[in-house]
Specification:
single chain, mainly alpha, two-stranded antiparallel sheet, 35 helices, 2 strands, elongated
Length: about 725
């Protein structure tokens, strides 16, 4: 009662109170331990009065662990309603070095092994729910279905229900709440970091509150509230007195990832409980990445936060499109290879982190199967809205189920492409990875030796990918191109057919298998004459945006390589710029080399398959050059894509046949009538000399070429799906 209405700074009142208590102990011969017990009871009812700490310091603290241990034991035997209060008192005493964790730990319950066993128990329950959700149920009466639902709900209660009587986790939560992260880490070390934080209900919210308080000063200048006249931001109240054991608020954005990594690494997927804090962390990390404020070590921390915390937490959120957009803004700061590594980890290992993730993964698979069961052209929009809600939270898993459906049913390609108009950019980028992932991990052969054709499942995926990239042309196709090049470099030629479907769908340049006589006469003509003769003019007009994007992608990559070589020339002090091999020319050289390999060194033994592959590779080679040629405004634009001394480089260095090399060069040459006699004669002489220089014995040695461009940004972890990650094959 004396201290209840006193101020923490009223030292004069405290001195008087201290003298009175000491006088009472001496006059009535009271037991100091009993007086200490009464003071702790009063402190428990009013934990904000830190004058109790000063009062406890006047006593000998040797018996404090035993007094607190007896209190904890009594609360275990009776009820748990007062556990939070005594845990807070104990946390304050530990923070002020009045007792140590080593002295108090034996008095707390449950035993360490029981806390360790709780995590695998919940993982096992989540695994049971996952297996039950993905199991296909056929038939059965209503009673059996109700019984199965009741069993699922009982198992789900084990995952969501916390145990408020866990004294060790209650003490951990109290230490976090009063901002004593140093001793909280000691408890985690005692438990070997094998803690399911949902076992104590208040622990996740305390960790989130501490995180939000730490980033508040650095987030405020970046928040949207800065545009309001009188912004009202609710800042959580976290005690901070400058002690060494406390976490301070972050004032330098360059320190945000490393400062938050310990807390977020411990929280893992349970950050989903606060979408606001997730959004704030995404804003801070995105700003730091775009402004290049993070060094290499800090960027590793950013990647770990994304992989282990943000993406698994997004899986547990309920259809939050805004949060999905924030995470996509952050992922855009990374190259294609790193993003695909995030997606692969998200798809393969995301559900193993928590029992809640197991349960949510199983429910998402079940709902996805139900919603795509009757998809058709008539119900694209309602089905697309339902799928969009699912993909906002867990795009890799939902899209993996959809792609498995596409492999079996070709008539569902167009409905699925139309259904994704309601999906986020994160979903659209993830789908390209999922399709490539399906192509890489499928155990079935990609060629049908019986019918001498491409396997139906692979043909369905390539056709879908082409239609998908035509519809959503703005997504990054760098990963698809890297996948094609890496597979071709490992002599897996079938993946070149992906490029064929991309060209056919995105640019509408799809010549029929059989041409009439009038169509053959039209081929030497101009671009529009070819389109009209092949009945492609209408399709070409409908895909102008995707065609322009397809061409611009390759042109920009070619200009990027040329600018890098100019900068290198300036550094080295060279007088003449030597053009190297850029992306479109490298892709053409690779395809041209594979054309010869298919004819002479292919492992395929079926003669019809060899002929089919040879014809397809030749068709892709011609189509790709035609697209680059007709998309260029001038011959000079195309010529800038070619390497230095193109004919000599292509035929001698890369051992391409002369007809392919000259076909690559032809769009970059001026018309014959624009050459004067001397220049034309020089060009003819240079071409004729190539027949003398070319040594066919060097074909095997020079069949592969080096090109740093393809493997830029590809990590070893992600490249195991897309071929080898070395720079020379």
């Amino acid at each position: 009662l004396f201290l209840r209405n006193a101020d923490n700074e009223d030292l004069e009142y405290f001195d008087t109170l201290e003298k009175n208590i000491v006088g009472l102990i001496g006059f009535f011969d009271l037991d100091p331990n009993r007086v200490m017990d009464v003071i702790l009871d009063a402190f428990e009812t009013n934990c904000n009065k830190l004058l109790y700490i000063r009062l406890v310091k006047t006593f000998r603290t040797d018996s404090l662990p035993h007094i607190l241990g007896l209190k904890f034991q009594n609360y275990t035997k009776s009820n748990h309603s007062r556990l939070k209060g005594i845990s807070t008192v104990t946390a304050h005493l530990i923070k002020n070095s009045l007792i140590t964790l080593n002295d108090l730990w034996p008095h707390l319950s449950p035993a360490d092994h029981e806390i360790h066993d709780l995590l695998p128990l919940r993982l096992a329950k989540g695994k049971e729910l996952y297996d039950s959700a993905i199991k296909l149920r056929i038939g059965g009466d209503q009673e059996s279905r109700d019984r199965a639902t009741k069993e699922e709900n009982d198992r789900r209660d084990v995952l969501t229900k916390g145990h408020s009587g866990n004294q060790k986790l209650a003490l951990l939560e109290a230490l976090v709440r009063i901002n004593d992260w140093k001793h909280a880490r000691i408890i985690l070390k005692f438990l070997d970091y094998k803690v399911d934080i949902t076992a104590y209900p208040d622990l996740p919210s305390s960790l989130i509150t501490l995180t939000r308080w730490m980033i508040e000063p650095i987030y405020r200048p970046l928040s949207n509230s800065r545009f309001f006249k009188n912004p009202k931001l609710i800042v959580p109240d976290v005690p901070f007195s400058g002690l060494e054991v406390e976490r301070a608020q972050i004032t330098d954005i360059a320190k945000v990832p490393t400062e938050l990594l310990q807390i977020l690494g411990f929280m893992g997927c349970h950050l989903w409980r606060s979408p606001l804090v997730m959004s704030q962390i995404c804003v801070l990390l995105t700003h730091g990445m775009k402004q290049s404020l993070f060094d290499e070590r800090t960027q590793l921390a950013v990647k770990k936060i994304i992989r282990d915390c943000l993406l698994p937490s997004l899986t547990l959120t309920e259809c939050n499109s805004g949060l999905s957009a924030q995470i996509w803004n952050l992922l855009q700061c990374f190259d294609c290879g790193q993003r695909y590594e995030f997606y692969e980890n998200w798809l393969a290992k995301g559900k193993f982190q928590s029992g809640l993730l197991y349960d949510r993964t199983g429910r998402d698979i079940k709902m996805t199967r139900e919603r795509i069961k009757r998809i058709s052209e008539e119900n694209i929009k309602p089905t697309g809205r339902l799928l969009g809600k699912l993909t906002h939270s867990n795009p890799p898993l939902v899209l993996d189920v959809i792609s498995s459906q596409i492999k079996s049913y070709r008539n569902q390609i167009n409905p699925f492409v139309g259904a994704f108009i309601y999906s986020s950019n994160l979903t659209l980028d993830t789908f390209a990875f999922v399709i490539l992932h399906q192509m890489s991990n499928e155990q079935r052969p990609k060629l049908d030796s019986v019918d001498a054709t491409v396997a139906p499942w692979f043909s369905n995926l390539t056709s879908f990918l082409g239609s998908y990239l035509k519809k959503f042309y703005w997504i990054d196709i760098r990963g698809v191109i890297n996948f094609i090049v890496n597979k071709v470099n490992t002599e897996s030629v079938v993946e070149v057919l992906i490029l064929k479907d991309m060209i056919s769908k995105m640019t509408a340049w799809d010549t029929p298998d059989e041409l009439s006589e009038s169509q053959l006469h039209a081929l030497p003509g101009g671009f529009w004459l070819k389109l009209e003769a092949l009945f492609l003019a209408k399709e070409y007009k409908s895909c102008k945006k995707s065609s322009s994007f397809f061409y611009s992608f390759f042109v920009n990559e070619a200009k990027k390589v040329n600018s890098e070589q100019v900068q290198k020339m300036e550094v080295d002090g060279q007088q003449e710029v030597k053009r190297g091999l850029n992306l479109p020319m490298s892709l053409l050289v690779t395809i041209g080399q594979q054309r010869s390999i298919v004819a002479h060194k292919t492992p395929v033994k079926h003669i019809k398959l060899i002929g089919m592959l040879f014809d397809n590779i030749t068709e892709i080679f011609i189509k790709f050059i035609e697209v680059l040629r007709h998309s260029s405004n001038l011959n000079a634009d195309y010529y800038l894509m070619l390497p230095e001394k193109p004919l000599e480089t292509l035929t001698v260095k890369f051992q391409l046949p002369h007809e392919l090399a000259f076909f690559m060069l032809r769009p970059g040459l001026k018309p014959v009538y624009q050459y004067n006699g001397k220049d034309f004669k020089t060009l003819v002489q240079s071409c004729s000399k190539l027949f003398e220089k070319k040594d066919l014995t060097e074909f095997e040695a020079n069949m592969r070429f080096e090109n740093d461009y393809f493997f830029e940004g590809m990590t070893d972890h992600a490249a195991k799906y897309f071929g080898p990650s070395s720079k020379s094959v």
